[in-house]
Amino acid sequence: MKGAILAIGNELVRGRVFNTTSFWAARELLFQGYEIQEILTVPDDLELIVLRLRDLLSRYAFCLLSGGLGPTTDDITNEAVAKALGKSLVTNEKMVHRIKEREKAQNLPHNPLRLRMARLPEGAILLTNTQAMAGYYLVLGRSLLFCLPGVPQEFRHLLKTKVIPLLKEKLPLKISIRSRLYKIFGLREADINLKLKSLEEELSGVYLGYYPVLPEIHLSVLIRAPSVEEADKLFELVDQKITKTFEPFIFGHDEDLLEAVIGKLLSKRKETLAVAESCTGGLIASRITRVPGSSNYFERGVVTYSNQAKKEILGVPEEVLVSYGAVSEPVALAMAEGVRKLAGSDYGLSVTGIAGPTGGSPEKPVGTVWIGFSCQEATVAQCFLFPGDRHLVQDYAAGTALDWLRQYLTYGTLVPRYQFTCRG
Amino acid sequence: MKGAILAIGNELVRGRVFNTTSFWAARELLFQGYEIQEILTVPDDLELIVLRLRDLLSRYAFCLLSGGLGPTTDDITNEAVAKALGKSLVTNEKMVHRIKEREKAQNLPHNPLRLRMARLPEGAILLTNTQAMAGYYLVLGRSLLFCLPGVPQEFRHLLKTKVIPLLKEKLPLKISIRSRLYKIFGLREADINLKLKSLEEELSGVYLGYYPVLPEIHLSVLIRAPSVEEADKLFELVDQKITKTFEPFIFGHDEDLLEAVIGKLLSKRKETLAVAESCTGGLIASRITRVPGSSNYFERGVVTYSNQAKKEILGVPEEVLVSYGAVSEPVALAMAEGVRKLAGSDYGLSVTGIAGPTGGSPEKPVGTVWIGFSCQEATVAQCFLFPGDRHLVQDYAAGTALDWLRQYLTYGTLVPRYQFTCRG
């Protein structure tokens, strides 16, 4: 079942915003067996949109259009769609109502420009009742046209919750599909690839994809088979092989987030966590608290950026800081244990390192990070040398600290080893 | 001078690799006055490539094609280009020579497949003498076709060093270009649009774009004029109008980040900052410490997620928490002042609110956030009602706290008003 994506926006063809959303959508759709054949990106140009849209609709079973649904004068998607289909624009009363409700709720003066959003091509069916920029779809003979807002969060949400279910309902596949995404922390992409090379070669209908979403590696498996039974059988085989090969490093599947996996584990055990961060600067706390309900298990975080703060808040002794330096094993240990005791929590995590670009030395180069882990059983620390720029070092450090806790909660491993463990 | 980009590769339309290179190229070209009108991404499908390439060449002065120049059987770009142009493929002896030299240098056995790379469309001129996949261009009457390797580093290098100079030589511009991006915090997209509507209508050669990168709004200005003088004059006019209209809400331009703008202001004043976060959970500290050199002005952060932590670390009195609740003016004040005094810093920021999805009440619905700001002069707090889901509420809260500090540092405004200020 083949389709196309038409992304609209001057910001895209001007390279102000990279159109990653379309490529993400192509991947998501492929997992479901819907293959994107072309991704076109065009500016807010009525004639060009009409031309390209007509062409795509004549070629493919479905078309996804994104962008240009907003209230401003450069938003011309609705007009273009109507023109391409030879339909008129009609006011959608549900949209009008929603726009007015939102203005009221947010105490905004009425802005007539916003009503432009409610002028939709005849036959448009709204995709949702809850968002301002709803998005809509049209059934055109045997093909489907989806019009989605360009705002990435809204686009992604609607694709997953509305577009894919509608495709499955209106354009059902004749083959069976199974797919799964494996989220891996702590292994190299090339090493994963090497261990699975034979799998793809030996089994037909199995498609693997490797996506470095650093510091994680995501491994996608797509199975295509003539029947549900065959797809299931093939999937079982592949799933077992992957799980057996990489197990302690697979932290989740599909939509799982490392911080949410930890949240579930802690909630189940009714245990709590506190963190003390230096070079990650609040990134670990921030990731943990992005998860709804994290107040049930996250007690506190401290970002002890200065040595003064490390002493005052965590009680790291002055002489330890002086003798060993802030980036050292005893400081990581003192921070992890300090924050755990201070918070009265079950677990304490700490990070102290050199994220760069400055601050490195021949003995402790940029990327050197000590991570500490404290629980009832023991307090331990490990040294890492992470690659990349400041942001990547911070991302690796935060990810490693979180994964360490996960490995302890799942397997009881006190000191798990990772690709960037450097000594200790 | 308008052009198009045609990117070729199954890995692109399957979403295995995100085609960011094309968007990067569009941006680079626009800065030079060469406007990309369409970016098409297609698979390794001969007929489709021929069809799209012919269409693009008939419309635009130049076309950039990327990918499919390699030695493997799925590399069919040369064949497609020849077919689209009605030319034959001829062996390029320079390429043959280079391929053989490289095989020798790398001690590789001769692989006849590699010679496929030397079969180029008649008239192709190599772009460089140093790379294996050289890339080439063709002069087609008054238009230009560039064929570049898809490997991002090679593509980028050739675009900068070869393609842009060739464009300037063969397709010199008759117009001058000026462009600027305005980054705005605290105003609505529709309101900004309303105030600038007349500008675009009255002045020809001025192009505005509105991009919600929530919680920020980015406004782009592109000026096209017949001469440098006229472009500069027009730019001055538009820049003054925009600056005057939105000034206190414009936090930066082009590549500026709010947290880096604050960093510069604090560094210049040799002042320091500490933050106390509840519902933003470390997001503010994390954004600040993403900036290199932030250890010069960021002293510490505390994520006082539990009431216990608010009392213990920040000294928020028990009776205040009990009488007013954690999400209240006195708690925001106590947190901001508490963290500032504790850290001995010049400024203290605090956030306490209900990010959701649970925890709301009729009196304090989800999205209710108190933000506190403390400096030598005073300690103040403001209540906000932010829209959206948990993440958006957190993003708005963090952005507002940071922008509040910026407005104080820039204008001395103690209590700046924002679109989501709700009372107080």
Architecture overview:
The structure is a homodimer of 424-residue chains. Chain A contains 14 helices and 18 strands. Chain A folds into three domains: 2-170, Molybdenum Cofactor Biosythetic Enzyme, Chain A (3-Layer(aba) Sandwich); 176-253, Alpha-Beta Plaits (2-Layer Sandwich); 258-423, Maf protein. By secondary structure, chain A is of the alpha/beta class. Chain A is globular, with a radius of gyration of 26 Å. Chain A has a six-stranded mixed beta sheet, with helices on both faces. In chain A, helix 3 crosses helix 4. The first copy, chain A, has helices at residues 10-13, 20-31, 46-59, 77-85, 93-105, 152-170, 189-202, 228-246, 258-269, 283-289, 307-314, 318-324, 329-343, 390-411; strands at residues 2-8, 35-42, 62-66, 89-91, 119-121, 125-126, 136-140, 143-148, 176-185, 206-213, 216-225, 250-253, 273-277, 298-303, 347-353, 368-374, 379-385, 421-423. The model of chain A has no long low-confidence stretch (mean pLDDT 93). Strand 14 (298-303) of chain A pairs antiparallel with strand 14 (298-303) of chain B, so a sheet runs across the interface.
Q: If classified by CATH, what would the architecture of the largest domain in chain A be?
A: 3-Layer(aba) Sandwich
Q: Predict the CATH topology of the largest domain in chain A.
A: Molybdenum Cofactor Biosythetic Enzyme, Chain A
Give the oligomeric state.
homodimer
Stretches of chain A where pLDDT is under 50 for at least 5 consecutive residues are none
How does the overall form of chain A come out from the CA principal axes? globular
The main β sheet of chain A shows up as: 6 strands, mixed
Compute the CA-based radius of gyration of chain A. 26 Å
CATH superfamily of the largest domain in chain A: MoaB/Mog-like domain
Number of domains of chain A: 3
Distance between the termini of chain A: 54 Å
* Total DSSP E strands of chain A: 18
Strand order of the largest sheet of chain A: 2-1-3-8-7-6
CATH class of the largest domain in chain A: Alpha Beta
Name the chain pair whose interface involves the most residues. Answer: A-B, 84 and 89 residues
Helix content of chain A: 40-55%
The percent range for strand residues of chain A is: 25-35%
Count of helical segments of chain A?
14
Mean of residue pLDDT values of chain A = 93
Structural class of chain A: alpha/beta
